[in-house]
Amino acid sequence: MLHYASGTPKNDEFQAVENQLCSHRLLSMYSDYQGGVFRWLKDVQAGVLTFDDWLASTRDGERRLEQKDRIARRMFGERGLAVDWPGYVEAMREASNRLPKEPPRHIILDSGAFTAWNKPQNKRVSPVILDNLIPAYERFLSESDGLFDEVWLVNLDVIPGEVGRDATPEETARAIASSDENLKRLRSEFGNRILPVFHQSEGPARLLEVIDQAKGYICLSPTNKILEEKRWSWAMLARCALSDLDCDVRTHGLATTGNDMVRNTTLYSGDSEAWQQHARYGKVDLIDEETIIAECPVTKHVSRENILVEQYTRIENRTQARYRGNHISIEENDYERGTGESLIDQADHFSLLSNEKQSKIRSAVEKTIAFPLAQIDMRARSLVNLATFQEYSGHVSWKAPTGPTITVHDANGNEIDPEPYYRKKVEVQPYPTAEARQRFLAMREGYPGL
User: Fold this and answer.
1) pLDDT at 83
2) How do residues 216-227 score in pLDDT, each as one tens digit?
3) Is 201 left (phi over 0), alpha (psi -120 to 50) or beta?
4) 186, 216, 317, 435: least CB-packed within 10 angstroms?
5) pLDDT in the model for residue 197
């Protein structure tokens, strides 16, 4: 899976290294974030490709980092920790020099519709409107002309209902109609680079409509505030549906980098801001292995006209990779200066681990950045997490649908060849055939909640 790093660029001393770490970037064009996006674009245009480029282009950059060095040494000293502090400049230079001198080459611009919709009631803002979004998309494309290998634009999808409340059928119907109008207008402005969005619970018939709108690439949008298991199982059903439709369509998952989501759904690409969010909590994500009972959907043969998809069938015990958070931070708020009492109260904190585990974590972090920096700076931790997400998502490769990829069983539980069941040799098409559509819509029992 291709990992698109999302989140508004910070445009700080870490930004060049962040750019070097990721080849794919998703940028929100929500109004409050556009300033950071265009500042980021300006630096990429100006050739700020490495940490030394940033240092040379930033007034008083080295002096500011020397001040941060003094703060860091004081923090370690107050805690009685003997640390060979590497210094920001040398640590950042070393990290940058290990990486290619390349910014991201593949870009997705998001409309920011969910950001506006998801604001708390007391901070509610007006929804994103097309007349404001089009100029932002136009400006980015104009100023970045020839700079990137590809730039995709997400449709301005209208989200029905309210935060914390499911939408009514009427609200969903109105939202779909408005989304389709926006897609039509954006396509007239920007052509086939506009990606339509399929939302959780919109149903099989709507999936067919979104496939027809697509030019071989669609966005899947799981419901944000539900259990992760329900999010990834829905995305898996959508991928299974595309195979049942013999349809060659790539899928991009919006906010989809959870362990099970990445491992089970075989998305072509996905994004989330988790690599930054986890760093704010004082954690670095590192790849580990675990033994699990693997679960995946299978199909059971019910009759020659119908099949049933079961989402939770236990298969086997196996060891597989996952990323896991490790709390390593030493922040201002974890130490009470008045009493000298530590405020850290986590059983898995780095300081409470065995020497062997500490050494393993330190070595893994230092593949990206000096460990002391990651202990005291959220941005340094975010670089570690970004490197981990890039590596982890690469464990799963997207494959074009080749017809039914889920196992078919007869009434006695014996595995059978799906080819005779579908009575044809599978030929993948850009769009589903009429026969595939009829077969798919007849399988409504097989796709609950799609």
Assistant:
1) 92
2) 999 999 988 788
3) left
4) 317
5) 96
| Spatial distance between the Cα atoms of 375 and 342, rounded to a whole number of angstroms | 15
> Among 260, 174, 157, 169, which residue's Cα sits nearest to residue 218?
157
What pLDDT, on the 0 to 100 scale, is given for residue 309?
45
Low-confidence ranges of the chain (pLDDT < 70): 120-125, 290-319, 332-347, 398-427, 444-446, 448
Contacts of 147 (CB under 8 A, 6+ apart): 41, 44, 45
100: tokens are 């290619």
Instruction: Give the separation between CA 53 and CA 13, rounded to whole angstroms.
Output: 10
- The pLDDT assigned to 447 comes to 72
Could you tell me which of 293, 205, 288 has the C-alpha nearest to residue 241?
A: 205
Can you give the chain as a three-state secondary structure string?
CEEEECCCCCCCCCHHHHHHHCCEEEEECCHHHHHHHHHHHHHHHCCCCCHHHHHHHCCCHHHHHHHHHHHHHHHHHHCCCCCCCCCHHHHHHHHHHCCCCCCCCEEEEECCHHHHHCCCHHHCCCCCCHHHHHHHHHHHHHHCCCCCCEEEEECCCCCCCECCECCCHHHHHHHHHHHHHHHHHHHHHHHHHEECEEECCCCHHHHHHHHHHCCCEEEEECCCCCCHHHHHHHHHHHHHHHHHCCECCEEEECCCCCHHHHHHHCCCEEEECHHHHHHHCCEEEEEEEEEEEEEEEEEEECCCCCEEEEEEEEEEEEEEEEEEEEECCCCHHHECCCCCCECCCCCCCHHHCCHHHHHHHHHHHCCCCCHHHHHHCHHHHHHHHHHHHHHHHCCCCCCCCCCCCCCEECCCCCEECHHHHHCCCCCCECCCCHHHHHHHHCCHHHCCCC
Give residue for tokens 């291709």.
2
> What pLDDT is attached to residue 109?
98
Tokens of 152: 């995709």
Any residues with CB less than 8 A from the CB of 38 and at least 6 apart, and which?
A: 139, 140, 143
